[in-house]
Amino acid sequence: MVLPAPRSRAEEVVAYVEDSIEKRGLRPGDHIGTRADLREQTGVARATVNEAIRLLQERRRIVVRPGPGGGIFVAATDPVVRLGRTLLTVHGEPSAVAGAIEVREQLEPLVAAHAAQYRSAKDARELKSLITAMRKSLDDVTRFVSLNWDLHLRIAAISPNTVLRGTYVGLYEFVNQVSLVNSQSPDGDYLAQRLKVHSDLVDAIVAGDVTAARHAAEAHRHSG
Fold first, then answer.
1. pLDDT reading at 3 higher than 50
2. Which residues contact 50 (CB under 8 A, 6 or more apart)?
3. What is the 3 state secondary structure string of 175-223?
4. For 23-38, how does the pLDDT look when each residue is reduced to its tens digit (9 = 90+)?
């Protein structure tokens, strides 16, 4: 069952910024605007804009410069960023989503191992907080799936390997953007099973157990 995560408000702002860069023909180093500009243009709260900026920085789409003349600027495009764009050009191919899922799943044990090896105390707190939120959302499929997506992004963000991180996130975004939701909604038992798989994964990462993290990622891959 493939469940693309619905966009959060922050993801909507991310999409707005990326669309603006494209439509305005902005190049690396060009000024996009300020945080205040984004709040005014999108009508969202300060915290939402801040979260969107964090996501854009993680994906290396923007750089933020403080002080007079500062603001939000287009980041230099590197091969990892171009990979994400390239993936979106193949969405018309029938096997594209299946291929993206296959590659992404092969990367998951390595992503999990890196997370276990390099996680900080802050990483551990945020991962456990996401699991708690997922547990509280078992009766809300939309929120559960969105939190699941956030969790995988957060785990990937721990890896110091920018190529691995960028490729994995790019594949995840590709699948979420072009795949269709299964017509049959998952029931409570399915969500509870998914929660258990992800809880085991986070427990292994927080414990710093690389082997257990790999095994938990393999269990996640084979659990449907």
1. no
2. 35
3. HHHHCCCCCCCCCHHHHHHHHHHHHHHHHHHHHCCHHHHHHHHHHHHHC
4. 998 888 899 999 999 9
